[in-house]
């Protein structure tokens, strides 16, 4: 699965508004933000970069005033991590990823045995309220903004999907998004529930709804990363299973 996930990472970055390809690497930039979590690179599977290749990659970031940063499945390109470490890159994190297939997907239920209503946004104000809810859910890790709402809309209109559960006051209680499929798989991300609505099965509901949507569109699998054992249990309940690891590295200074 590592090669499939890495091929997806390459294809997904090539969808960015600005793409730079250097020897063995694809870099995706979004001029609407300087966030290192959106502007990053990934290697092509099997890449064996030289010191010069890594230097060219670093310059692609430095020339734009951005931090050099990569996300990738290390087992799909074993020579990349040593080359990056030699150039001074350090590890930010190592995340296990989980994969769901049509055969493992399980519909969730609330404690009362009912299914939550999961909706797709249509109007711009819905994208804005989902963006605001996710910003609250992630404790200000990123701020709500018109650019964030616009990225959600591009995901929905570009072949991916955005789903949310409405709060009693008409706002967004929680939501998530899934990229458009590539090479048979797609990434589900940004699963977040506002603190006041946690423990009600919202994360499970939107995760299962997104996976089902992508399977209906022909995807063979959906993968995601989890942030803790609590979220892992949520994802496993709806059919996600451990499949590999992803590495996050960056260059300071």
TrEMBL record:
Which GO terms of the molecular function aspect are on file?
Answer: acyltransferase activity, transferring groups other than amino-acyl groups
Question: What SUPFAM superfamilies has UniProt attached to this entry?
Answer: Acyl-CoA N-acyltransferases (Nat)
For the N-acetyltransferase domain, which residue ranges apply?
117-253
| Organism this protein belongs to | Streptomyces tateyamensis
Database matches in InterPro entries: Acyl_CoA_acyltransferase, GNAT_dom
Transmembrane residue ranges: none
Q: What is this protein called?
A: GNAT family N-acetyltransferase
> Which Pfam families does this entry report, sorted A to Z?
Acetyltransf_1
What domain of life is recorded for the organism?
A: Bacteria
Q: Does the keyword Transmembrane helix feature in the UniProt annotation?
A: no
Gene3D superfamilies documented for this protein: 3.40.630.30
Give the UniProt keywords, A-Z: Transferase
UniProt keyword Transferase present: yes
